[in-house]
Specification:
41% helix, 25% strand, Molybdenum Cofactor Biosythetic Enzyme, Chain A, 3 domains, alpha/beta, five-stranded mixed beta sheet, Alpha-Beta Plaits, six-stranded mixed beta sheet, 417 residues, Maf protein
Amino acid sequence: MELELVTVGTELLLGFTIDTNGAEIARLMGTIGVRVSRRTAIADRAEDIRSSVGEALSRTRFVITTGGLGPTRDDITKKAVADLFDAPLEFREDIWDALLERYRRLRRVPAESNRTQAEVPRGAEVLPNRWGTAPGIWLEGPAGTVVMLPGVPLEMRMLLQHEVVPRLAGRTAGRVVRSRTLRATGIPESTLADRLGDVESDIAPLTLAYLPGLEGVDMRITAWDLPPDDAERRLDTAAERIRSLAPDVLYGEGEDDLAALVLDAARGRRVRLAVAESCTGGLVGARLTAVPGSSDVFDGGAITYADWAKSEMLGVDAALIAEHGAVSEPVVQSMALGAARRFGALAVAITGIAGPSGGTAEKPVGTVWLATAQGDEVRSSRMIIVGTRNEIRARAAQAALALLWRRLQDVRTAPSP
């Protein structure tokens, strides 16, 4: 089964509001085997609503709209769709009574304009909204079906889950659309695609999409229109195939956060962690401490942005900085060793040129040196990161976490105290 989604709201087109409703609907529809084939965002204009919904109905005969069901003048979705179906709005006393009761519970007095929320297209089914004041509407006619939902995300989500999904589930013959996401880092999208080669033929009829971002490249595998058990089995097989081709760059699935995985690995090996940061200015420590419970393995760090701070706080020899520069392998190794000794922990260090100025022919903007140290054992690596200052810093922090995570794979579990 396919449907189209029409999101109504001038604020969406102006860029002041991000359409999270569309993503929510698409994800939930997939779990019951309904495919969202097209998403359209339009302004609060009656002619745009009528034409967009009408065109969508001509393609799929089933449309979900969000937004435009409130009491103000720009809330015109209901009237526009009612005109399209030649189903005039009718005032419903039962809906109005329910709204009045809700306002009494909230100790509020409704405005006269709220009466419009009790108007429903003739012949429509009302989807009761227990989470707000705008009821959902299910309207069917010769052209197809339109389900109108409020734009407030909480209200939309709850109506979708409790009213729309149960009505649609019986129409999909027990087939689903399901996805699984594998997360990779430290490798460009094109290089990863070359590494995987013709894997899409191997996993067919499943599809594979590459989704690059600041933290790396996500690979989304999708099974379309299959029985649930078959979809899960095929996703398992496809995920295992991809893991076998790129085991060194894959670190998690779904919404896995690399910082949380680092902390779990350290916790499992009874290892303490510390950071020494220059160009990232504390981003690595912030990523780690954003995870609840991080204090049981993360001790702290040093933000040594200036050269003198590297020397005084981490013991980096000033002569080393003078000879090689702050962004160099000897300096990052000394930073990591200094943090490891100061905190008595496995430390990761990072120094680089985030730009937009400061680069040279030998060390262009985006040059980053990373190192890990535990005791006297230190490992380092260099990378060139492309992007804006913020992108370079964010990607450098992710790279530091990746280096720390890989180092932890080689660490033996410390004896119990």
